[in-house]
Structure to design on (432 residues):
């Protein structure tokens, strides 16, 4: 039986999930941080490295989708434990033999194990908080992602430069095992698993109702949420795969300076997340609807980041250029927790895990495209600088279009009322 509502337990679970996301994003970052020594040692091209980076996302979306549908049958405690243990296993192939095939194998397994991580950890978190109290926990969960990169950049860079790049993979394997053991002891599913109290201004479908998934997925709110996540994920995947190499090879930074810059961008993301969560709570307390307090905000953040992405390659002054890089790769963090929040406002609790899995799967598809496309653009261009510039401009276009669509489409109150009225006395089991 799930524990009764307990604030201390809820925040303990929140802390563990934040740590879960820290490890998750450290795993994502390690290949990019080690890109230069790996490419030098294994004599691989930019295109080959791009394919290795993209291989992480080959099963990422599919596993997120599949696990989402099983989330109502398997406890979050078990799901998160299994995922973290697989993360540890995925780091092992390159410790045995370092080749392109073993790098790809490790990234494939890691991507499959991390695909459901963000959506399922958010689903687990929501089991401990009612809808009206999810703003700060959601920001903290995604803040764990920014914190993961902030911590990982200097620590893993220190390991890579001091003990070789393999040591970073080994350290992450041990960390995943330690987290798994602690989580198995303290992680529990919360009391808001099977009940849902909708926000006062919404008319979300009741918990017992199950709607056809096509009806849920084709609402403007869910489509807009996916769009904002798509634009944010394009920049995020580019950041993990290529930003460290760009800072070192194009801006002439040392490994330590590049790590410091990446940590600063992550710190900026973390501050934004914590500030935005309080801003949303304040706006809702003043009666502002979710469409404007969280829907428009996430789309606008992606548009602003896209504009900065299109600008910094053409700025030569170091200070303004670094500032624009921070905005381009830091502002997108705002969209990640908000797209889950807006989706949750229109989806019945019984179907939330599955829909989160679908949203995460489609929203993270850029990871399969952006790193590989960037590698090809760099190799195909007359100079590396021109290739990077083309990749950043493509990213900017994707982000601005995705963000603008999110602003126009996300209307949680409207869609929740429409779905609730569609159920009426004819509520039935969901169809695919």
């Amino acid at each position: 039986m799930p524990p009764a509502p307990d604030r201390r337990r809820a925040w303990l679970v929140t802390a563990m999930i934040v740590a879960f996301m820290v490890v998750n994003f450290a795993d994502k970052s390690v290949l990019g941080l080690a890109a230069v020594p790996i490419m030098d040692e294994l004599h691989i091209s930019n295109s080959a490295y791009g394919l290795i980076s993209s291989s992480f996302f080959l099963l990422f979306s599919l596993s997120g989708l599949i696990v989402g549908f099983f989330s109502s049958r398997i406890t979050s405690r078990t799901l998160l434990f299994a995922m973290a243990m697989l993360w540890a296993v995925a780091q092992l192939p390159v410790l045995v033999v370092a080749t392109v095939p073993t790098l790809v194998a490790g990234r494939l397994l890691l991507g499959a194990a991390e695909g459901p991580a963000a959506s399922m950890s958010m689903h687990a978190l929501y089991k401990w908080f009612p809808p009206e109290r999810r703003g700060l926990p959601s920001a903290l969960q995604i803040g764990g992602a920014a914190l993961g990169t902030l911590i990982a950049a200097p620590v893993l860079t220190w390991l890579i430069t001091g003990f070789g790049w393999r040591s970073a993979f080994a350290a992450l394997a041990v960390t995943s095992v330690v987290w798994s053991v602690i989580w198995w002891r303290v992680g529990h599913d919360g009391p808001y698993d099977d009940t849902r109290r909708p926000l006062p201004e919404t008319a979300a479908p009741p918990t017992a109702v199950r709607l056809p998934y096509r009806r849920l997925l084709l609402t403007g709110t869910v489509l807009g949420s996916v769009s904002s996540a798509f634009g944010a994920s394009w920049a995020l995947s580019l950041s993990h795969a290529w930003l460290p190499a760009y800072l070192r090879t194009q801006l002439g930074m040392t490994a330590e300076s590049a790590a410091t810059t990446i940590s600063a961008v992550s710190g900026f993301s973390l501050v934004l997340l914590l500030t935005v969560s309080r801003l949303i709570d304040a706006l809702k307390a003043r009666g502002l609807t979710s469409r404007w307090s969280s829907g428009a905000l996430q789309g606008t953040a992606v548009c602003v980041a896209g504009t900065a992405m299109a600008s910094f390659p053409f700025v030569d002054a170091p200070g303004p250029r670094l500032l624009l890089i921070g905005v381009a790769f830091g502002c997108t963090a705002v969209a990640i927790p908000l797209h889950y929040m807006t989706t949750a406002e229109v989806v019945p609790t019984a179907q939330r895990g599955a829909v989160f899995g679908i949203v995460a799967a489609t929203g993270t598809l850029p990871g399969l495209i952006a790193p590989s496309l960037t590698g090809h653009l760099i190799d195909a261009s007359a100079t590396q600088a021109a290739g990077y510039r083309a990749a950043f401009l493509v990213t900017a276009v994707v982000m601005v279009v995705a963000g603008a669509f999110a602003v126009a489409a996300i209307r949680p109150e409207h869609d929740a009322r429409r779905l609730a009225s569609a159920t009426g006395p004819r509520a039935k089991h969901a169809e695919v």
Summary: Confidence is low (pLDDT under 50) at residues 195-208, 425-432. DSSP finds 20 helices and no strands in the chain. The chain has one domain: 7-197+205-423. Residues 160 and 168 are 6 Å apart (CA to CA).
